[in-house]
Amino acid sequence: MAFVAYSASITALLPFNRIFSGGMGKKWNRISPGYSARLRAGPSALSRTSSFSSAAAGKAGGAPPLPQLSEADKTLPIYTWPHKKKPRVCILGGGFGGLYTALRLESLLWPEDKKPQVLLVDQSERFVFKPMLYELLSGEVDEWEIAPRFSELLANTGVEFLQDRVKLLNPFDHWGMNGHKQSSCGGTVLLESGLLIEYDWLVLALGAEAKLDVVPGALEFALPFSTLEDACRVDEKLKTLERTKFGKDSFIRVAVVGCGYSGVELAATISERLQGRGIVQAINVESTICPTAPTGNREAALKRACVTVLTDGSCHRRIHWKTVCLIRALSLNITSSS
Questions:
Q1: Can you give the pTM of this predicted structure?
Q2: Per its UniProt entry, which superkingdom is the organism in (predicted)?
Q3: Is 111 within a domain?
């Protein structure tokens, strides 16, 4: 038995591996945005952004117009904001970008009549601290420590939360570049539940998803590692293999495809968990792994963890249940020896 953990096409939302040196545990109630950058909203920047959005959506380059709400959609229930005159900010996506933006807007000092109302929308009821997903595999943390509920994180704030998925975005054209000007609000968001949200400002922080259709076989035979659900599935697969191989001489063989920061740490974590019972091989399309890391550190980390690295242009071509085939006519056998 063996399995493939796939991280080749997972786009990291943030360019770092870990942002805290220790576990989060009970510190979630002290979470803080910690931004030092100044917020700027000058008229020139606003006009450039709005003009670009309108042109990109309409006439420029022959791009198709933005989809519009149907007549039936216009009769859907509308989200009721607490205050009619205060600015309305809708944030789509509750990852680092979305959650920190919501908390930052809440923490800033505003004139009473200018403090924005903030609504955060995410498809999950939990915020996932992705840099610590690996600790879930090693048993260093519990699920609740790295995935607290939004309702708990936002309990003492003025930020409202909705668990839902986005169906349609309909930004209004304030510049008249695509026809008649619209200025009643910034636009609308239609959710899959049928709820319509009118906003003045919209923040898109939808993050990234694992893309498994790049390599044939990955969708059927590989496990992505990007979400809490992914981490739980990998953990369950490892537990199954550990039970199956308990007391036997055969090894648990694991191939990790993709040697970015996620893939490297995933390979090292699995190797440390399996110790002498497993063989972990990391496959990368580039000639080096984690090119921005200090020279030598990346290789040393995997060497200490007993992970074999296959690089230098050996790009993965297809994935089967028992093998990973590489472009350079190299077939990595991950079948157990039994």
A1: 0.70
A2: Eukaryota
A3: yes
